[in-house]
Prior knowledge:
This protein has strands spanning 3-7, 10-13, 18-25, 32-39, 46-51, 55-57, 65-70, 75-80, 89-97, 109-110, 114-119. The chain is mainly beta. The strands form 2 sheets. Strands 2, 4, 5, 6, 9, 10 and 11 form a 7-stranded mixed sheet that branches. The chain has a 4-stranded antiparallel sheet with strand order 1-3-8-7, with no helix packed on it. The N and C termini lie far apart (40 Å). 32% of the residues are buried.
Amino acid sequence: QVQLVESGGGLVQAGGSLRLSCAASGRTFSGYAVGWFRQAPGKERQFVAALTGNTYYADSVKGRFTISRDNAKNTVYLQMNNLKPEDTAVYYCATKWGQYSVNTRSYDYWGQGTQVTVSS
């Protein structure tokens, strides 16, 4: 059974930074794509970033967010810099076998989410 646990969310002022973590138990991330998604109130869950052997980003976060992995800790990170109020959302990590996808339905396992709030 795979479990993903996100952490690192919080309240930050615009222009600030946060680092989210996604820790996996039950298997390693090797061979799997890991994606970060976010969902704001009243909106659909949307793709933010993904990591396979390469990294992929939504246009809205490109240049501000960085996804990375620590294999020894079986953890994937999302470093978020220059945060904007429109980044406010619940952030989720998810995993799927093989290549990444921007489609939430392609992912098999999800974490419980962590709230990120950016004040103006």
